[in-house]
Amino acid sequence: MIEKIINGYEKVFGAFKGNIYFAPGRINLIGEHTDYNGGHVFPCALSMGTYLAAEKRNDSILRFYSENFPESGVIEVYLKHLINEKKDDWANYPKGIIKLMQEGNYEINRGLNLYYYGNIPNGAGLSSSASIEMVTGVMLNDLFNLHIDIIEVIKLAQRSENQFIGVNCGIMDQFAIGMGKKNNAILLDTNKLTYEYASLYLKNYSLIITNTNKRRGLADSKYNERRSECDKALSILKQYADISALGDLTIDLFNELSRHIADDTMRKRAKHAVYENNRTIEAKKALDDGNLDYFGKLMNESHISLRDDYEVTGKELDTLVSLAWKTQGVLGSRMTGAGFGGCTISIVENDYVEDFQKNIETEYEKYIDYKPTFYVVEIGDGARKLY
């Protein structure tokens, strides 16, 4: 891959004398819609991601090129003129973290030639934007000897997406990409930013991402709606318990207090947040005990809760998951991401991976009229310098 990146760089910018960096994509194994409710998430970094060949210039011009968007050509901007411009499209993501580092008084005093190549599938919900931000952050930290702690790079990347791009994301994507560890998932407390690794050696099993290939038109408006419903439920429960987030509640305490939430829908939303947070903590215990069967059961319960209590799945995701549950060799399957389209994640016995893909593709097409896409993925390390 390094040779491919160097060849690509040289076709665009000429002889290469710089460095190469990599930041993975990520998948959330369990713990959905818990981050903004002060709970835990359980993501891992993937072996696919974004590669960046970078070299300093002798002026103050930044030149961006992506092999994934060749139609955009080379995008040029000045270091002192970093604003979010629609015409710059994907390049706004690296521009944002450069701008945030400048505002943090980190000295970036020369222009750069930047060649990006990503093998994260478009639209698969594996966080290509955060991958671009993090690979840029790691590159700047190294090339300019900024000595920034990786957690601070993660925070800068999240702030860039919030403030420069204008997307109100949590910190999970950048954190998983920055702190990923091969064959490990990360139990992250999104409220306190404390974390623990959990070994995830799948042995005779594979991790399969299945893309519904549905456009997610509803996701943003429904996300805001769910967030508002949880906030309202929290404001009611705060009158009866000393809590700052739904993630502070145990299942027993929630069951005791939930009668105070008169609205059925609001109560269901809060129930999901509390129960899903508990499932995420249980998932870490299951992996520590080497109990993949229980981990798979928790995945299934997560999907049911997202379907029935949080109502963010939809026909396509439910079809994929129900087909997976009926397929031999599947330990567990659930939607992953915001919902209303996107992907499912399944743990499948290696001997049945081919059958899993073949059977689900056939049946899904019968119900939905088009085919899903499958990615058998590996759990990899976080953002880093390669060369």
Question: Quick recap of the structure?
Answer:
By secondary structure, the chain is of the alpha+beta class.
Keywords:
387 residues; alpha+beta; six-stranded mixed sheet; four-stranded antiparallel sheet; 13 strands; 41% helix; 21% strand
Description:
This protein is α+β, with helices and mostly antiparallel strands. 41% of the residues lie in helices and 21% in strands. It contains eleven helices and 13 strands. The strands form three sheets. Strands 5-4-6-3-1-13 form a six-stranded mixed beta sheet, with helices on both faces. A four-stranded antiparallel beta sheet has the order 10-11-9-12. Strand 4 (61-66) and strand 5 (75-78) form a beta hairpin. Helix 8 (264-288) runs antiparallel to helix 9. The N and C termini lie close together (11 Å). The model has no long low-confidence stretch (mean pLDDT 95).
Uncertain segments of ≥5 residues (pLDDT<50)? none
In DSSP terms, counting alpha (H) and pi (I) runs of 4 or more, how many helices?
Answer: 11
Briefly note the structural class of the backbone: alpha+beta
Average pLDDT across residues? 95
What's the gyration radius in Å?
21 Å
Order of helices and strands: HEEEEEHEHHHEEEHHHHHEEHEE
Distance between the termini: 11 Å
Shape: globular
User: Main beta sheet, described?
Assistant: 6 strands, mixed
What is the subunit organization of this protein? single chain
Number-wise, the strands total 13
Strand content: 15-25%
Helix content: 40-55%
How are the strands of the largest sheet arranged? 5-4-6-3-1-13
